[in-house]
Design goal:
Length: 386
């Protein structure tokens, strides 16, 4: 079967790219190795900036069919200390990723995309004008090939765009979902600061579940697992309630990597588009999928796709990585009484697209005012004002 575009992976990046292409009248195939709906390890917090992107597409019709909980409160916690910000607007939506991803791929199919699940991409051959794509469910042909196959992208490796991400480039996060009635929770998006290298914990209130987890640098993996277990035991009402963690890696954005060549494009996690400070990846998956679809619809080059992505994300990813590295242990936010500043930063990160440069503005204000001693602000000042 011959398609204009074949997309490998039906996570947010692949499904949304497929939806956008189908909407533009392009013949598109999306394949995924899993049987859908499938489990996906995630905190399940869809930021309001991601919601805005998909709500333009009447995604509300699909969201209404899944269990989701709008949150309008951000809580920062460190030991017994706590600070919160409540707004009259939706700051994000807590969902089960299984349902959310299924809704996205259904939207793509309703717009005209073909979807085949339990279909694993193995490799492809370049026939010069098209690609011959070998999968566990047969051979497909397409003019373009999109790698939306996550952090360990096979498309990236087979096409030699990149080998695996190195461990130091990645974060690791573990999470579990627990029925709401069994947990002590604060009905919002709670971020919890521990002694975890470059990371934090969370407790996100869903409709009938609470998602609890911890993320940080992959190199600190043992500590992340230990801290997550302690956090859950701290929050569940009955300490003998069974719970099970799932973990996965996150590729931190901030480095310029090759993400496209000829008619092959990487999107989402496959391209390394995760915010190092917040761990958010869904927005960047959706947005890069959209940029890829626009590039293909306009018959623009792989270079153009790369330029557009990096123009939109790169500087924000860099500032986010700087913030993460410089801050180190995030308990400093409370020790140095700047929790209110960070509440505002979390609010902005959830609600503002990267084009508005929220990390840049936040770090800029920190460096300018220089509220020492929490940050080595002279160092940051030299980075920003040099
Ligand atoms: C514990 C944890 C918590 C997180 N919490 C949040 C959060 O709250 N909010 C947020 O925005 N982000 C969060 N993230 C990040 C977010 O989950 C990812 O950034 C996001 O899923 C990336 O989407 P994607 O479509 O690029 O890739 P994925 O969602 O990983 O989808 C890739 C798809 O490709 C398929 N695939 C892989 N290989 C093949 C193959 N060879 N053939 C066919 N199919 C293949 C997979 O089955 C999968 O369905 C979290 C990550 C972790 C690990």
């Amino acid at each position: 079967m011959k398609y204009d575009v074949a997309i490998i992976g039906a996570g947010p990046a692949g499904a949304y790219c497929g939806k956008d292409l189908a909407e533009k009248g392009i013949k598109v195939l999306v394949v995924d190795k899993e049987k859908f709906p499938r489990h996906k390890t995630c905190g399940g917090l869809i930021s309001s900036k991601a919601l805005k992107l998909i709500q333009d597409d009447c995604f509300d019709n699909y969201l209404n069919n899944i269990k989701s909980n709008p949150v309008n409160k951000i809580i920062l916690t460190c030991g017994q200390k706590e600070t919160e910000l409540e707004k009259n607007q939706v700051l994000g939506m807590v969902v089960r990723r299984k349902d959310f991803d299924d809704a996205l791929i259904n939207m793509a199919m309703d717009k005209g995309a073909d979807f085949v699940d339990r279909c694993e991409y193995k490799y492809h051959r370049d026939l010069k004008n098209s690609y011959e794509i070998h999968t566990t469910r047969g051979i497909f042909y397409s003019d373009y090939l999109i790698g939306a196959d996550g952090v360990f992208s096979n498309v990236a490796q087979v096409s030699k765009l990149r080998q695996r991400f190195l461990k130091w480039e990645m974060g690791l996060a573990v999470s579990c979902e627990i029925p709401k009635e069994l947990v002590i929770e604060k009905n919002g998006a709670e971020f919890i600061f521990f002694k975890v290298l470059g990371g934090m914990g969370w407790c996100f209130s869903g409709k009938d579940l609470v998602n609890i987890g911890v993320g940080g640098y992959a190199l600190d993996s043992k500590n992340i697992s230990k801290t997550a277990k302690k956090l859950v035991l701290d929050r569940i009402k009955n300490k003998s309630t069974p719970f099970k963690f799932h973990g996965s890696f996150l590729p931190a954005g901030g480095r310029k990597r090759q993400i496209a060549r000829e008619r092959i494009f990487l999107v989402g996690d496959a391209a390394g588009f995760v915010d190092a400070f917040s761990g958010e990846g869904i927005y960047y998956g959706l947005k890069s999928g959209k940029i890829a679809a626009e590039t293909i619809a306009k018959s623009q080059s792989a270079r153009k796709y790369e330029q557009e992505c990096y123009k939109t994300f790169l500087s924000e990813f860099r500032y986010s990585a700087i913030l993460s590295v410089v801050l180190g242990d995030r308990r400093r936010i409370f020790y140095n009484s700047i929790d209110k500043n960070f509440l505002k930063a979390f609010y902005t990160v959830l609600t503002t697209p990267p084009e508005m440069r929220c990390y840049r503005n936040f770090i800029y204000s920190v460096a300018k005012d220089g509220f020492s001693p929490i940050f080595p602000y002279l160092w940051m000042k030299s980075l920003i004002f040099a």
